[in-house]
């Protein structure tokens, strides 16, 4: 938190558990969440939906559930690129988004070309994917 204050200047900073956010239902017009949902799974996504207003936008980046993603994560762990804790990751099925009533308005796959990350729309939606969603 102190580092946020030093680097970001003024503003409010709140540290909270993504599974139990301290905000009212529909509190935010929009939400951004990157590289967290593989630690919380679908419960974290449900909580993000809860605090986002109806019609609000959600930008999330998460590891989707495919054999490609699971293989890439195992390879990244064995090469020391990813921490070993990712072996216990939750991978979210894209069908989960539809079941939660979320509309995907845009998406891009994040391609990792050491040391750079690049968003690409022409690639299949596998691995780490960024989604623009509408609630």
Key traits:
single chain; 135 residues; alpha+beta; Rossmann fold; five-stranded mixed β-sheet; 5 helices
What does this structure look like?
With 135 residues, the protein is of the alpha+beta class. The protein has one domain: Vaccinia Virus protein VP39 (Rossmann fold). The protein is built from five helices and five strands, in the order H-E-H-H-E-H-H-E-E-E. The chain has a five-stranded mixed β-sheet. The protein is globular. The two termini are 29 Å apart. The relative contact order is 0.18.
- As for the number of domains, it is 1
Placed side by side, the strands forming the largest sheet appear as 1-2-5-3-4
What portion of residues belong to β-strands?
25-35%
- Output the CATH homologous superfamily: Vaccinia Virus protein VP39
Secondary-structure element order, N to C: HEHHEHHEEE
Spatial separation of the terminal alpha carbons:
29 Å
Q: Any idea of the CATH class? A: Alpha Beta
Uncertain residue segments: none
CATH architecture: 3-Layer(aba) Sandwich
Shape assignment:
globular
Question: Mind summarizing the main beta sheet?
Answer: 5 strands, mixed
